[in-house]
Design a protein that fits this description.
With 73 residues, the chain is mostly beta strands. It has one helix and six strands; from the N terminus they run ββββαββ. Helix content is 10%, strand content 37%. A hairpin with a 4-residue loop joins β3 and β4.
Length: 73
């Protein structure tokens, strides 16, 4: 599985070696489509039924952690 990841993501403040960004995913079954630096790009890539959420991604994997209560706005 290939996860599309923007190259200009900032390092995570919570997890060393991880980056922060907008994840495009389906929680069940787990499918991380991509991680993007801006919300607009993430929403443009989302397919029907996918969530767009802010969180942390471990590069080179499909690991992405987020909390519904931590979402901006």
């Amino acid at each position: 599985m290939t996860v599309e990841v923007d190259e200009n993501l900032k390092p995570s403040e919570n997890s060393p070696g991880w980056v922060s960004g907008w994840g495009v995913l389906t929680p069940s079954p787990w499918n991380l489509k991509g991680v993007y630096a801006n919300e607009e790009k993430a929403r443009a890539s989302a397919e029907s039924g996918m969530k767009v959420v802010w969180g942390d991604h471990k590069p080179g994997t499909d690991d992405f952690v987020y909390s519904d209560s931590d979402q901006p706005g």
